[in-house]
Amino acid sequence: MHAWVDAWHSALYGPAGFYRDARGPAGHFATSTHGPSGRLFARAVATLALARGCTQILDVGAGRGELLRELAALIAAGDAELTLMGTDVVPRPGDLPGSVGWVQSAGGADLPDLGPLENTLVVANEWLDVIACPIAAVDRTGVLREVLVAPDGTEGWGDPAGTAATIGPAEADWIEQWWPHSGRPGERVEVGLPRDRALAELGARVHSGVVVAIDYGHLRGQRPRGGTLAGYRRGRTVPPAPDGTCDLTAHVAVDSLPHDTLTQQREALARLGLARANPTYELARADADAYLAALQHNSALSELQGDPLGGFWWVEKAIASPR
To answer: Which distant-in-sequence residues (6+ apart) come within 8 Å of 136 by Cβ?
Structure first.
């Protein structure tokens, strides 16, 4: 058995890892960037970039370039002037517009050389939840211990937190501050320190601009006592097993992340001016295409602002140029 954090990372980003599958994430689950809602989500991202004075957008954990293609379409239509770049664990997607830059990454928190990031909006949509983190649980005696796992998902006990291979003193300090436990047997902790460090490192790469991490998450005092680690395969929830055949994800302790503001997606989109259209029957008679477009807009907005996507957290951090 191995520590969950190691087995999890290998299962997603190893040579035969889940995220190297030719179908990509869209073959197993949908995000805000997929399907009809993707264009509206891209418009919100472009609006945020322009409002913050950014001239470039970097998509971290870009999948197969879904958001970048929608942003490129907005630029081609004259709705925005922005430079686009993405990074993910796979080589550059073949159908990505030539104007879009792409850098292949090693996966997870391992960031490649992204070049100078000046006046850049960095968007990390559903990136942090698939950065592997240590898992701990309270044993029958009330001791919090590292959880080990076999490829089939069978779990076993490791050493006590604070002395374990992947849950040492720094991780124990994080647990005490951000995810204190009651000592009840079976209670689980997903140690978010690797996510905090990953977002801090991403921010350190930005010379000026804004970093926005968008993910499902929770706040201190509302941590799920049983944890959130889950597996997904072809649109269905499956038992989490680090065998490379399914996505492995856990919600993010968003308040421990470096941030200026925490806003849920439904409020963030409203703040960016996205509102429901009000198509009338008169419009339907006069311009059927415009009427249909308004209905499609409302449907996409409902998807982005409803559950579960509307409850995602936007974790924003502004980065100013050094004087």
So the answer is: 144, 145, 146, 147, 161, 164, 167, 175, 188, 189, 191
91's tokens: 């080589």
Rounded Cα distance between 168 and 184, Å, is 21
Provide the token pair at 248. Answer: 């492995």
Please give the model's pTM, rounded to 2 decimal places.
Answer: 0.92
Which DSSP string do the residues of 209-250 spell out, in sequence order?
EEEEEEE-EE-TT---TT---EEEETTEEE----SSSSEEE-
Residues of the chain with CATH 3.40.50.12710: 31-130+192-216+251-271+298-319
Q: Specify the CATH number for 31-130+192-216+251-271+298-319; select among 1.10.238.10, 3.40.50.12710, 3.40.190.10, 3.10.150.10.
A: 3.40.50.12710
Q: Give percent of the chain with pLDDT exceeding 90.
A: 77
Contact 137, 115 (CB under 8 A): no
Report the pLDDT value the prediction gives residue 309, as an integer from 0 to 100: 86
